[in-house]
Amino acid sequence: MKLNGSIQLEGDKSISIRMILFSILSGQGSKIGNISKSRDVLSSIRCIEKLGLTYDNTTRRINKTPISASNFFDCDNSATTARLLIGILCGLKIPFKI
User: Fold this and answer.
1) How much is the pLDDT for 3?
2) What residues form DSSP beta bridges with 50?
3) Residues 5-27: what's their mean pLDDT?
4) Which of 23, 46, 58, 81 is found 20 to 30 A from 4 (Cα to Cα)?
C-alpha cells in the first residue's frame, strides 16, 4: 500500500520543555515549532516569562528581553521543568526559589 501526503504529529512534551528552557541561554530570540500543549509545557512557558522572555504562539517565537529579578518559579507538577530550570538558574547566578 502506498501513502501520499503528510502527517503532523503532536509535539513531544519532554523535547518541548527542553527547547523552551534552553532558549533562556540563547543570546537572542528562538523559534520553536510544534510545541506540545501539555500542562507541563505551559508551566515551562510561565517560568521563562518570569525571566523576561515571552512565547508568541502565532509566530512560535520566544522573544528575549533583559532578565528580571523575579525569584520564585512555579513549575506546577512538572519535574522536568524543575530539574532543568535549577541547573539553568544556577548558571545565571541569580537568587531563586522553585
Assistant:
1) 63
2) none
3) 83
4) 58
pLDDT confidence bin for 66, thresholds 50/70/90:
low
How many whole angstroms separate alpha carbon 97 and alpha carbon 28?
Answer: 25
- In CATH, what number is assigned to the domain containing residue 45? 3.65.10.10
Assess contact for 78 and 21: CB atoms under 8 A.
no
7 within a domain of the structure (yes/no): no
Q: What is the mean pLDDT of residues 13-36?
A: 86
Average pLDDT, the chain: 85
Please name the residues in contact with 64: beta carbons below 8 A apart, sequence gap of 6 or more. Answer: 23, 26, 28, 29, 30, 52, 53
- Judge whether 34 lies within some domain: yes
- Identify whether the C-beta of residue 68 lies closer than 8 Å to the C-beta of residue 51: yes
Domain that holds residue 40: 13-92
Residue type, 51: L
Number of domains in the chain: 1
